[in-house]
From TrEMBL:
<keyword id="KW-0614">Plasmid</keyword>
<protein>
    <recommendedName>
        <fullName>Winged helix-turn helix domain-containing protein</fullName>
    </recommendedName>
</protein>
<dbReference type="Pfam" id="PF13592">
    <property type="entry name" value="HTH_33"/>
</dbReference>
<dbReference type="Pfam" id="PF13551">
    <property type="entry name" value="HTH_29"/>
</dbReference>
<feature type="domain" description="Winged helix-turn helix">
    <location>
        <begin position="105"/>
        <end position="162"/>
    </location>
</feature>
<dbReference type="InterPro" id="IPR047655">
    <property type="entry name" value="Transpos_IS630-like"/>
</dbReference>
<dbReference type="InterPro" id="IPR009057">
    <property type="entry name" value="Homeodomain-like_sf"/>
</dbReference>
<dbReference type="InterPro" id="IPR025959">
    <property type="entry name" value="Winged_HTH_dom"/>
</dbReference>
Length: 195
């Protein structure tokens, strides 16, 4: 009676999970409860008998929750909390050039790796630095550029008057092409025309 309830509970859990490993664990325990040997259950899910025994033991002690994997904490950070705080301050409020990386305006993972190695003598991979920066609340963004000599009044006039007028001429076939000088490079070997 108890075994039938456990089997139904496992079947329900199998139908609601989208985690393949968890599904395999539920299936292995269910097969053992149905009378299959641990070796047979292991063969079905592609694991060895010892692993299935471990699943069954965890299920017996903690039920369904005993089969759910806990998030692995991974290796502890090599940097201290103070060093991590200093890293955030450097990356968030200074350019690479300001901290000694010549001709570098934007932070890259490679530059942060070099910074950590130079400042604290710890070697990190770029993936490790990406994970570290994410954990510290920093996110990757692409720099946006603004034109220093841009005249906002002229830009507004262009958007509201000049461009709509040119667009109308283009649609009415009064003009054939509309080229923007600031964004287009015309090579002398390109032919502008119709064939």
């Amino acid at each position: 009676m108890e075994t039938e309830r456990q089997i139904r509970e496992l079947e329900k859990a199998m139908n609601t999970t989208d985690n393949r490993r968890l599904y395999e664990r539920f299936l292995a325990v269910k097969l053992v409860l149905e009378g299959h040997t641990r070796k047979e259950a292991g063969h079905t899910i592609g694991r060895d008998e010892h692993t299935v025994s471990h699943y069954v033991k965890n299920y017996c002690h903690n039920g369904i929750q005993g089969l759910v994997s806990k998030k692995q904490s991974g290796r502890p950070s090599r940097l201290t909390d103070e060093q991590e705080a200093e890293l955030v301050q450097i990356v968030a409020y200074h350019t690479p050039e300001e901290v000694g990386f010549k001709s570098r305006a934007n932070w890259t993972l490679a530059i942060v790796c070099d910074l950590i190695l130079r400042e604290w003598s710890y070697g990190y991979t770029q993936k490790g630095v990406a994970d570290l920066l994410h954990r510290l609340g920093l996110s990757w963004t692409r720099p946006t550029y603004t034109l220093k000599k841009a005249d906002s009044k002229k830009q507004q006039v262009f958007l509201e008057e000049t461009f709509p007028s040119l667009k109308k001429k283009l649609l009415n076939s009064d003009i054939d092409h509309l080229l923007f000088e600031d964004e287009t490079m015309i090579r002398d070997y390109q032919a502008i025309g119709c064939t």
